[in-house]
UniProtKB/TrEMBL annotation:
Recorded family membership: Belongs to the FAD-binding oxidoreductase/transferase type 4 family.
Protein name, per record: D-2-hydroxyglutarate dehydrogenase, mitochondrial
Lineage top rank: taxon: Eukaryota
Annotated source species: Mesocestoides corti (Flatworm)
Function per UniProt: Catalyzes the oxidation of D-2-hydroxyglutarate (D-2-HG) to alpha-ketoglutarate. Also catalyzes the oxidation of other D-2-hydroxyacids, such as D-malate (D-MAL) and D-lactate (D-LAC). Exhibits high activities towards D-2-HG and D-MAL but a very weak activity towards D-LAC.
Top-level EC class: oxidoreductase
Enzyme Commission designation: 1.1.99.39
């Protein structure tokens, strides 16, 4: 494989690898049209790709599909300061757009804040319906998209830009493309409604001794801050420890120096309040809140930021946790949707993972293999939980020791063999969610990221086949839409619809 295309064949975690020999980097919509029409004629699979920061392999070829990268389509076309509408191409990097918007000429802010802020692309953010940290203030990117343009699988250009903000006639077709992860077409232009920039933003870090206190802090924060509470992120001790260990991100809190307090479990909360009040008032609000919850015995330590630099420092471990995982081993990430009250039970489930699937740390901090089990088997090194408690969007991350992850790939076929220890973890998660579902479809769909993007994407296993989706009208309707938009099945194949003959 030529060096020029290697980076397009490997996902962000280094876990998934394809074998594409053809990468196209267009600079205009017309060039994308020409490429897609040829692929449609010859029935060649297409993988749309932006920053290639997906954690589940959806932006990476499975076999030898044609990669169409939009990273060179990186122009900001227009910014309307009066309506707050920004029109840009899909290759624009969110951090670069935010830097432009924060100038005095516009004083706007992008309604998105994600860990891959400075390396992902807007087109990919829209295609995945990126959520970001500030979901309490800006739910998902879908809510802010007022128009888009896309090239369909047959090469037609679907323009939903003109009059898209007020047009109430017919279906809102752009919603089919938002969150579709490239299954229906390639986004070539986006119009985003951006709100006015908050005058001041204050970040707080709180540490609790137990999870019950975390829930109480969440309830208290919602009552105290109401709509000004923009973010509430949770990280367990394992997640925070990985960021500190691998990236040397030492938080400025007393027990962060390896003493007696560090040995007990703790739970970290990252909070953000956006306010139009003065900087002093905003800072006092967060400081006052921390004092109140400490007096109530709900947290053992808390601190708030006084400026933008301190805010970025406090957010550091949360923003960089996946990057830290890459340094510790092969990353396996699972996205779940659960209620905050179910999290302790989930943590207990993870703690019950067989010791033969884990590695242990000795007293001096060095990782050692547990004595039982095959010497050459892959082992889970780190297993932790983090995510957004108010929305129930929780991430479970397992890392497998470097050099022990038994990944078998067939030549030029991109076949991925999941380690047995991770497969057992997946099955445990699936069975746990299935037994505790509150809605027959929504809970299974919440785990479809595990099955469709990480299992059937690479190796179709009987335990995860399509029979579990039978009888779900929503899933059947999605399949019907897929067949209508992409009858030849060329757009991002072998992923969510790998078991469907299109």
């Amino acid at each position: 494989m030529a060096d020029e295309v290697k980076s397009f064949n490997v996902d962000y975690t280094g876990q998934y690898r394809g074998a594409s020999k053809l990468v196209v980097l267009p600079t205009t919509t017309e060039q994308i049209v020409d490429v897609i029409k040829l692929c449609d004629l010859w029935k060649l699979g297409i993988v749309p790709q932006g920053g290639n920061t997906s954690l589940t392999g959806n932006s990476t070829p499975t076999f030898d599909e044609v990669v169409i990268s939009t990273r060179r389509m990186n122009k900001i076309i227009s910014i309307d300061a009066d309506t707050g509408t920004v029109v840009c191409e899909p290759g624009v990097i969110p951090a670069n757009l935010e830097q432009t918007l924060e100038s005095a000429s516009y004083d706007l802010t992008l309604p998105l804040d994600i860990g891959s802020w400075d390396i992902s692309c807007i087109g990919g953010n829209v295609a995945t319906n990126a959520r970001g940290y500030r979901t309490l203030q800006y739910p998902t990117l879908r809510h802010s998209i007022v128009g888009l343009e896309a090239v369909l699988p047959n090469g037609d250009v679907l323009s939903l830009m003109e009059g898209s903000q007020a047009d109430q006639f017919g279906m809102d077709l752009k919603q089919c493309l938002i969150g579709s992860e490239g299954m229906f077409g390639i986004i070539t232009k986006v119009a985003i409604r951006c709100p006015s920039r908050p005058k001041f933003t204050n970040v707080g870090l709180l540490v609790c001794d137990d999870y019950d206190s975390v829930i109480k802090v969440l309830r208290y924060a919602r009552k105290e801050f109401a709509e000004t509470l923009s973010a509430f992120e949770y990280m367990d001790q394992g997640a925070l420890g990985v960021a500190e260990r691998e990236l040397y991100m030492k938080l400025p809190i007393p027990f962060n120096h390896y003493g007696t307090v560090r040995r007990k479990k703790f739970h970290a909360i990252f909070m953000e309040v956006s306010s139009s009040a003065s900087n002093k008032q905003s800072s006092n609000v967060m400081t006052s809140f921390i004092d109140k919850v400490r007096n109530l015995g709900l947290c053992c330590y808390g601190m708030s930021s006084q400026d933008k630099q301190e805010s970025e420092k406090l957010w550091g471990p949360r923003r960089s946790v996946i990057t830290a995982c890459k340094a510790t081993g092969t990353v396996f990430k699972f996205d779940l949707t659960i209620t905050p009250e179910q999290l302790p039970e989930l943590v207990h489930l993870l703690e019950s993972v067989s010791a033969s699937d884990r590695t242990l740390a000795s007293g001096d901090g060095k990782v050692q293999r547990v004595p039982d089990g095959p010497a050459n088997a892959a082992r889970i090194k780190d297993l932790f939980v983090f995510g957004q408690l108010p929305t129930g969007s929780i991430h479970v991350v397992a890392t497998v020791e470097p050099g022990t992850c038994d990944l078998a790939r067939a030549s030029l076929l991109g076949v991925h063999q999941t380690p047995a220890c991770v497969t057992r973890l997946k099955m445990a998660l699936y069975n746990w969610l299935r037994m505790r579902k509150t809605s027959p479809f929504s809970r299974l769909l919440s785990l479809s990221k595990i099955s469709d993007e990480q299992i059937t994407q690479w190796t179709h296993q009987p335990d995860w086949d399509e029979h579990r989706f039978q009888g779900f009208p929503s899933r059947d309707l999605q399949l019907s839409i897929k067949k209508a938009w992409d009858p030849k099945g060329i757009m991002n194949p072998y992923k969510s619809w790998s078991f469907i003959d299109t």
